[in-house]
């Protein structure tokens, strides 16, 4: 987490890989932060809601073998989870979710039926 001034500073320095504004907030992936995630014996996890992020991250670090994981759930589950978060922007988040296209993922996990620990093991197993 950071603030707008830091995102602006990183942008001015040419260190932003991806920036998105949504839900009255800005989200960014920066080169120094991404580089910190890449370490021996560590599996970096980048959570992003836009498919375009995949290419941006891959292009920024082509030396890393990335596994793309798509998390999905049915619309009723998504709505219940969004309401439970109590962010005040339920309609916008539901519309955004509905507008997000399916991606060409290495793994797709249905979070209606797969618990987080099992999902993590599936991803870890894929890493070999």
Describe the structure.
With 128 residues, the protein is an alpha+beta fold. The protein is built from six helices and four strands, in the order H-E-E-H-H-E-H-H-E-H. The strands form two sheets. A two-stranded antiparallel ribbon has the order 1-2. It has a two-stranded parallel ribbon with strand order 3-4. The two termini are 31 Å apart. The mean pLDDT is 86.
Give a topology summary:
Layout: H1 4-12, E1 16-22, E2 25-30, H2 31-37, H3 52-60, E3 69-72, H4 75-85, H5 90-99, E4 107-110, H6 116-127
Parallel strand pairs: 3-4
Antiparallel strand pairs: 1-2
Gist?
By secondary structure, this protein is an alpha+beta fold. It has helices spanning about 5-10, 30-35, 50-60, 75-85, 90-100, 115-125, and strands at about 15-20, 25-30, 70, 105-110. The model has no long low-confidence stretch (mean pLDDT about 85).
User: Roughly what percent helix?
Assistant: 40-55%
- Sheet with the most strands, sense and barrel status: 2 strands, antiparallel
Indicate the low-confidence ranges by residue numbers: none
User: Reading side by side through the largest sheet, how are the strands ordered?
Assistant: 1-2
Output the radius of gyration: 16 Å
Shape label = globular
The structure class reads alpha+beta
- In N-to-C order, the SSE pattern is HEEHHEHHEH
Mean pLDDT: 86
The total of beta strands comes to 4
Strand content: 15-25%
Helix tally?
6
Distance between the termini: 31 Å
What labels describe this entry?
alpha+beta, two-stranded parallel ribbon, 128 residues, 4 strands
């Amino acid at each position: 987490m950071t603030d707008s001034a830091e995102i602006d500073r990183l942008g001015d320095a040419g260190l932003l890989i991806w920036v998105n504004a949504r839900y009255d907030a800005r989200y960014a992936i920066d080169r120094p932060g991404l580089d910190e995630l890449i370490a021996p014996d560590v599996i970096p996890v980048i959570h992003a809601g836009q498919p375009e992020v995949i290419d941006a991250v891959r292009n920024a670090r082509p030396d890393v073998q990335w596994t793309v994981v798509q998390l999905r759930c049915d619309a009723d589950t998504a709505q219940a989870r969004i309401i439970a978060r109590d962010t005040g922007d339920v309609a916008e988040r539901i519309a955004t979710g509905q507008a997000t296209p399916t991606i060409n993922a290495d793994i797709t996990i249905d979070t209606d039926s797969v618990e987080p620990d099992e999902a993590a093991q599936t991803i870890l197993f894929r890493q070999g």
